[in-house]
Predict the structure.
Amino acid sequence: MQIEVKVVAGASRCEVFPLNEERMSLRVKLTCPALEGRANKQLCEILSKYFGVSKKHIRIVSGERSQHKRIEITQPFSP
């Protein structure tokens, strides 16, 4: 399954907001800055908790250096 994510790095707290259920898009606020991949690492951790899967089953397909990312989740989950 692939989802679209808009990331806001450097926020005061971590939050996940569904934007569009049909297109499976989310807005994710992260406390880590977008430096040296720290925000991407925190994004994978938050999405693993949100979807109830292991971090190794979450992969950034595109947009590694952008706010707009496409994420692939390779294991079935239960929301």
